[in-house]
Amino acid sequence: MATIEVVKAEVLDDATFINCIVRVIDSDGVEGIGEAWWGIPDREQPARAAAPMVSVVDHLLAPKAVGRDADWIEQLWHELWDWGYRYGDQGIFMMGLSGLDLALWDLKGKRLGCPVASLLGGPAMDALPAYASFPPLREPELLVSETQRALDYGFTAIKLHELDPELTALLRDEFGADLLIMVDVNGHFDPIEAIEVGRRLAELDVLWFEEPVRPMRDHEAIARVGAALDCDLAGGENEYTLSDFERLLSTGALTYLQPEITKIGGLTAARRVSALAELYNVALCPHNFRLGPSLFASIHWAFTSPASRWLELPWVPQGLEFSHPASLPLLVDGRIEAPITPGLGAGPV
Question: What pLDDT score does 261 carry?
Fold first, then answer.
């Protein structure tokens, strides 16, 4: 039996996009690396954005986890969730728990010499399509050049974070009908505005319109917008618990469900969300905008659910970087093949 000897959070902030890493080292010296959500960007002090999650890991979770059997992930997760419930079953506590959980799965895969997907029952498919997820760019020339660069890499689909639908129209005119385009507005609009923008996006044949309204968890407003539009909606990155996802899915508004693995409690919780996606017959598309453990955990998770349809890969202009040194997975005909590296496969840091 290997016991948990060290649990420690660390903010990697040496690049534009920071990572909030969680390390777990067992009594045999094997290290697992997970990731908690990284927080809302703070240009002046990037590490400050992730400080709440670091505090959860170091001061709440670590004292409860050290000394426990590193293999008993399910039991530890439920004990920590139950103990921490009074801190809240949403928000920073779940983000910290996500990082610990992913580190434990990575550790277990490394100890057994197999990919985490194999520990979860093995892949449900040979490959999954991936899309290039852009940050907000706003500039027409940059949008065109980044789209071309993504196509040259091997993507067949892109996701924009642009508020003006005419920027989507620009790319449709430039690259034609074969380019698959998703649009995410991060809850920028009220319902009336969202319907207006969504109707234009439907004319442009977008694959989905993501998080169309604010507040982003106003399920009734999401349903109203969905009922008024002819394009599919996507969302779910700001939900946390099974009951949250059940309430969202029960509206019938979403075609694409996008849980964020660094918010919901990690892979242990993600497996249960997979079952909900299958129950409500929606497409599972894990949300992610980081290189590192969060991306690779999302890949392992997606491959183990028959409901999975798309993988989100972050794509940023040259000169902008992520603090974690992982590389983007290779694409074959716009698709990622099932993972084979032991653990999560994000590599050392």
Answer: 98
